[in-house]
Design brief:
Family: Belongs to the glutamate-gated ion channel (TC 1.A.10.1) family.
Domain Ionotropic glutamate receptor C-terminal: 422-719
Main location: membrane
Helix content: 40-55%
Structural class: alpha/beta
Largest sheet: 8 strands, mixed
Strand order of the largest sheet: 2-1-3-4-5-6-7-8
Membrane topology: Multi-pass membrane protein
CATH architecture of the domain at 30-203: 3-Layer(aba) Sandwich
Shape: elongated
Radius of gyration: 49 Å
Distance between the termini: 169 Å
CATH topology of the domain at 30-203: Rossmann fold
Transmembrane segments: 373-396, 476-495, 711-732
Strand content: 15-25%
Amino acid sequence: MQLSLLFGLCLIHWPLARPLLSYRPCNESVVAIALSQIIHGLQPRQLAILAKPSSRWLSVDCANNDTIQVDDFIQRLHKLYYKSVIFYDTELFLDYIEANLLGAIECVNLIFHEPDELSARIQERRLAHRLSLYMFYWGASKPPNATRVNFEQPMRAVVITRPRPNAFRIYYNQAMPTAKSQLRLVNWYDGDNLGLQKTPLLPSAASVYANFQGRLFHVPVFHSPPWFWVSYNNDSNNVGSGNGNGNGTEEEYENGGYKKANVTGGRDHQLLVLLRQHMNFTFEYIEAPGRTQGALRGTDDNGEANDSFTGGIGMLQSGLADFFLGDVGLSWERRKAIEFSFFTLADSGAFATHAPRRLNEALAIMRPFKLDIWPYLILTIVFSGPIFYGIIIMPYKWRRHRIAMDVERLGELCIHMAYIKEITPCVLQVRHLRPVRPPTSAEMPPQLFERCIWFTLRLFLKQSCHELYHDYRTKFLTIVYWVAATYVLADVYSAQLTSQFARPAHEAPINTLQRLQAAMLRDGYRLYVEKGSSSLEMLENGTELFRQLYAQMRQQQPNDQQGFLIDSVEAGIKLIADGRENKAVLGGRETLYFNIQQYGAKKFQLSQKLYTRYSAVAVQIGCPFLDSLNDVLMRLFEGGILEKMTTGEYEAQARQMTKDQAQQSKELAAVENANANANANVMSNEVKDQAQHSQDNEMISALNLRMLQGAFIALGVGFVTAALMLLLELFWRRLNLALSLRRWRLRWLRRWRRLKRTLRQLTVRIFAPNLG
C-alpha cells in the first residue's frame, strides 16, 4: 500500500504524454479493471512493472484521478493474489529480468513505455527468451506499424491496444509458427459484455509450434560419420564459398551468404527427416564455418574478452541458423551461448589407439609368470640349496662333545666290544688282524655344500639326480622340493606356456587415462582431438589428468601449437590406421566405435568409458519452440526409435562393407580369370597373398619355430655358458698344472741341490784325511 501511494505521488508531478500518438481521455478505472483481468488471464507467478514519465499511462486530464487509478490497479492486482514489483529505472528492470533468466524463472513484465526503444535494448542484452513475456500497454486504437517496431524472435511480445473506451485488444507476436514475428490478434477484452473473450490469454507454444506449416530452417552441417555424411566439392561459384576448398569464411556467413551442403545420409539426417514429418517443416543444409562444431574465441583482435563461438555454434549464436545436430555435446561454456534439447544420444568420452601388438617371441619363455613372480622364484631356487645344506649339517653342529664309540672294525666288519664282553668270558685276541677304530665323532660328507647346491638345481630343472643323504629329515625335504618343482612350477609353467603358444601374447591394452599418460611419457604417443569439439573443451577446462594430458599435447609439437587438432574423428582414425607412429584420438565413444568398424575393428583398441557425455539438438538461446521439439524427441526416445536409428546406421555400414568385400572378390576373380600376361599373373598372386595374409592374421596362429625361438635362444645361451665354463676350467686346470710343474721342478731342484751338498760333504770327509 505504501509503494502504491509513493507511486501515485510520483505520478502527480510527471508530465503528460507526448503528442506523438493520439489518445482519447477516458475514465482510467476501466483501464485498471481491464489490465487486472488481462493479467489474471495469464496466471503469472509474479509481475514486474516498468513505469516511465513518458509512458501513456500518465496521459490523463486529472492528476488526482491518476493517483486513484494507480492505487486502484495495484489493489485489484493484489486482490487476485499476484506478486508485483514496480521499477522506475530501466537498467534495474533489465537487471531484474536477467537475474530471473539465470535462475530459469518465468516472469511476466508489464511495460508502460515505447516498445521501439526498449525492444532494441532487450535484444542487445540478449534478454529475449521464451521465459520472459513483455506486455506493452500501447493505448492507441491500432497496434504499432511493423516498420516502426519489429519484435524479432525469440522475443515474446504482447501489445495491448484500446480501440474503444471499454474494449481492449491483445496482439501477440508468436501466434503463428512463422520465422518473422508479426503481431496478430489473439484475444480481446470487452468491459461492457463478457470480459476476456477466452482463457488462457495467449495460445500455448505447444499448440502454435506443433505444426510449422512448412517453415524453412537452416541447419549447419559438416562431415562427421555416422551422424552426417557430407560430400564436398570444389565449386567456388557457390555463394559463400570463400576459397577453393568450399569452406566459407565467417564474415561471408554473417553477410547472409549460405553455402549449401550435400548430405547423403547419416543418423542425424534420418532424425531430422523424422522431425520434419512430425512437425511439418522444411530444412536446408548449409556448410558450417570451418567445418567444425565451434570453439570459444576467448579474445578478439584488440585483446578484449569475447564470449562468441566459431563454427556451427557461432551461427546459432548470431541467429543465422535454427538447428545444429551431429554429436553436439553439452558443456557449460556452450550453454551460455546456445540451448540444448532433450538428449539424442547418451554417450561417453573415450579414446582409440592401435590394437595391442604381438610381443617379441624371444621372451615367450619368460611370460608364463609375471615380472613380480620371477624374483621370488629365483630367490627360492637360490636359497633352497643352503637350506638343504643347513638341514643336513644341523645334527653335526649340535654334537659339541666327542662321543667314545666302543666299536672295532675288521675291514668292513664292525664288532661291538661291549656286547662281546657281555656274552663271552674272555675276549679272543686276534693278532693277525689289526683293529681299526673309527673316529670318536661322526664325520660330514665331503663337499656337502656344493653337492646340496647342484642337487637342488637339478631337482628344480627336472633333471635326474640321486638321493643326497639317507636320514629322514633330508628325505622329507627332498619330497617337498620335488612336489614344488613338479606340480607348482613345472606344470603351471608348462600350462601357461602352452596357452600362450596357442594364442600369442600381446601388449597390455591402453584403455585408461593413466595408461595413456604413461604411454605418452614413455613411448612417445601423440594424442589428437577434433577441433571445436566438446572433447577439446573437456581437455582445456578439465582438471587433474585432463589438464596434464592437454599440457603434454601442447608440448608434443613445440613448433606447431595446434598440431594436435584434427578436422574430424574419421581423420584421426585414418592416422592410427597408417601405423607409422603411436597415436591416440579422443572423442565420443559412439563416433569412435563407428569409425573403427568402418576401418576394421581388429586394428584398433577402444578405451574404457572416461566420462559421461550427452549429445542433443542445439538451438538458439530462448528458442520458442524448444518445448515442442523436446516432446517429439522424448516420444522418439521412449519408443526406442533413436536407438533403432543408431543401430540401423551400424547395420547399413556393415552391409556396405559386405558389399565392398563382395565387389573386391569379384574384381579379384576377374583379375584371376583375365591374367593374360605375366604382369597380370603377378598382380593376382600379390592380391591373393594379401587376402591369405589377412585371413591368417584373423585366425589363431599355429605353433611354429618362431614361437620356440626363445627356447632355442636359451639353449644357445646354455651352450655358450657351458663352453665358457669349459674354457675357464681348462685354463684353470692348465694354470694349476703349470703351478704343479713349477712346484715339482722347485722341489726336485731343492733335492738335487741337497744331494749335491750331501755328496760334497761326504767327499770332503772321505778324502780330506788322506790329503792331510
